[in-house]
């Protein structure tokens, strides 16, 4: 009897990751599956690992005599599969829960008109610690149904491990490409049948920062990326919408070498779409304008300080650290909101410092990843205890008021004319755990603005173990009829922990560790 699902694992060494993958399969409640492993490894490390698992006749192992590479090793696993459904599971990804596979199968079983289904996912770092949730908005799903080529602009489906499809579609990954290989496959599948199913809960956990991954290898290869974009555009340009074509063309503006890519990637100008000539002209104009602006501003002596904070708090904090003789500080930004606008840490990021930014709003978090790529960005909430798990997060019409506090959200609605746009479940991590997992000792600077929960977080903070030199904390709340109230409980707590008020901008209060300030070196 043929299995319903073929779990296809294209393996290449990395047995520590593969072990986690196999463990997640062994816990699945749904058991009508086979495991196909095609091994590209030059040794027997994968084969030896499999001896530690008892999948009996469900496991089929094939060692490639010659290394096939990506994505041909993926195709080899698919060719060997006998199941009705193909479930690609890369060796560094794994099922999140014991019911993940059954939910994948259920999507296709309950929707026979669909050939393709996918789910949200949780991104994990190389140490298997949570980074963020990758999910798809309703608007993105609408665009995808209208024209799958929209994936050209942004692959919001995600990694192949988040997908499952019927084997009858009879498609393989294009071995001519590596960077856009998954996007190409998704577009071809959905061009044949635009009906798909999406599961909003994360069913898969993805390793997002493994340096061994093909994605990481080609990320720095700009020439390869440009070649593959042109190759894929050539495949789909006669069968896609105008908006998708336009979005594709704008992707080229991000490549610094786009203007000389003929020489860089050996692409014949006669083969270039006419639209790209237009984009080259746009980019030339953009560069000239940018250079002229830079010359104008560089010729003028800088006689002012630029602040990105709400009331100049970052400039005050910068001065404090100059007095403390700390040039490159580390920071923890809790309730970071926006990567630049009204942000207390962007000035330091701009000057070369790095830190951790915590933002539970997924839209804002994705913007953080884009604008603050040197920082560690966490799509989580801040809990008060080590046992906190998940909590409701209230997304407000004014995003700066997003909060985990139901009481605060209802107050914003009643007194400030705000609306609750959505309520979503977000994982919680205590502030002490965030510090222990992301800093060698402690952050130098902590900014806290988490709408109504600042005091609770501070009460849970381990001041005995961690002594940041500076805190910037929102100490003003708004009450009925637009009145204002100073949160003296926060100020009293910080004073009891041997921090003094260095400055107060009315909205925020800046606290400095007394011992650090008294021990500063004066010239």
Question: Quick gist of this model?
Answer:
The protein has 523 residues and is of the alpha/beta class. The protein contains 19 helices and 21 strands. Strands 1, 2, 3, 4, 5, 6, 7, 8 and 9 form a nine-stranded mixed sheet that branches. Strands 12-11-10-16-17-21-20 form a seven-stranded mixed sheet, with helices on both faces. Strands 13-15-14 form a three-stranded mixed sheet.
Write the layout of secondary structure elements.
Blueprint: E1 5-11, H1 15-26, E2 33-39, H2 45-50, E3 59-63, H3 72-80, E4 85-88, E5 93-95, H4 100-109, E6 116-124, E7 130-134, H5 138-146, E8 163-166, H6 181-192, E9 196-207, H7 214-219, H8 222-236, H9 242-250, H10 261-265, H11 274-298, H12 313-323, E10 330-334, H13 346-350, E11 354-358, H14 362-371, E12 376-378, E13 381-383, E14 390-396, H15 406-416, E15 420-430, H16 431-438, E16 445-448, H17 454-460, E17 470-474, E18 476-479, E19 483-486, H18 488-496, E20 499-504, E21 508-513, H19 514-518
Parallel strand pairs: 1-2, 1-4, 2-3, 6-9, 10-11, 10-16, 11-12, 13-15, 16-17
Antiparallel strand pairs: 4-8, 5-9, 6-7, 6-8, 14-15, 17-21, 18-19, 20-21
């Amino acid at each position: 009897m043929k299995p319903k699902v073929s779990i296809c694992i294209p393996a290449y060494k990395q047995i520590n990751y593969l072990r986690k993958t196999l463990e997640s399969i062994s816990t699945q409640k749904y058991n009508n599956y086979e495991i196909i492993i095609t091994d590209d490894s030059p040794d027997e490390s994968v084969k030896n690992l499999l001896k530690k698992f008892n999948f009996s006749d469900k496991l089929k192992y094939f060692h490639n005599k010659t290394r096939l590479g990506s994505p041909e090793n993926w195709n080899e696993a698919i060719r060997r599969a006998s199941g009705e459904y193909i479930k690609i599971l890369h060796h560094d990804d794994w099922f999140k829960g014991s019911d993940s596979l059954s939910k994948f199968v259920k999507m296709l079983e309950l929707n026979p008109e669909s050939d393709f289904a996918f789910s949200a996912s949780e991104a994990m770092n190389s140490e298997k610690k949570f980074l963020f949730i990758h999910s798809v908005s309703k608007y993105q799903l609408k665009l995808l149904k209208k024209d799958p080529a929209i994936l050209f602009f942004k692959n919001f489906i995600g990694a192949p491990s988040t997908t499952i499809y019927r084997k009858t579609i009879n498609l393989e990954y294009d071995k001519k490409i590596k960077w856009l290989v998954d996007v190409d496959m998704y577009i071809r599948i959905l061009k044949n049948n635009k009906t798909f199913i999406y599961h909003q809960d994360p069913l898969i956990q993805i390793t997002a920062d493994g340096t061994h991954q093909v994605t990481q290898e080609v990320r720095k290869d700009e020439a390869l990326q440009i070649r593959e974009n042109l190759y894929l555009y050539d495949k789909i340009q006669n069968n896609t919408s105008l908006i998708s074509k336009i979005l594709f063309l704008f992707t080229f503006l991000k490549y610094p070498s786009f203007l000389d890519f003929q020489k860089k990637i050996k692409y014949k100008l006669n083969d270039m779409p006419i639209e790209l000539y237009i984009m080259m002209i746009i980019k030339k104009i953009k560069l000239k304008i940018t250079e002229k602006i830079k010359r104008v501003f560089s010729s003028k002596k800088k006689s002012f300080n630029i602040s990105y904070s709400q009331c100049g708090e970052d400039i005050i904090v910068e001065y404090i650290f100059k007095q403390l003789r700390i040039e490159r500080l580390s920071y923890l930004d809790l309730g970071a909101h926006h990567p630049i606008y009204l942000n207390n840490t962007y000035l330091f990021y701009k000057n070369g410092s790095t830190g951790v930014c915590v933002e539970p709003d997924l839209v804002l978090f994705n913007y953080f990843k884009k604008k603050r790529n040197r920082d560690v960005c966490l799509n989580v909430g801040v809990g008060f205890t080590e046992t906190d798990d998940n909590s409701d997060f209230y997304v407000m019409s004014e995003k700066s008021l997003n909060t985990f506090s139901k009481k605060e959200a209802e107050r914003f609605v009643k007194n400030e004319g705000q609306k609750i746009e959505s309520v979503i479940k977000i994982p919680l991590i205590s502030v002490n755990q965030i510090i222990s997992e992301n800093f060698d000792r402690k952050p130098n600077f902590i900014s806290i603005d988490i709408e109504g929960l600042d005091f609770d977080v501070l009460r849970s903070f381990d001041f005995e173990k961690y002594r940041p030199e500076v805190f910037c904390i929102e100490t003003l709340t708004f009450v009925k009829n637009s009145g204002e109230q100073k949160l003296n409980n926060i100020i009293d707590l910080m004073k009891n922990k041997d921090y003094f008020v260095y400055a107060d901008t009315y909205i925020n209060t800046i606290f400095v560790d007394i011992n650090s300030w008294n021990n500063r070196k004066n010239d």
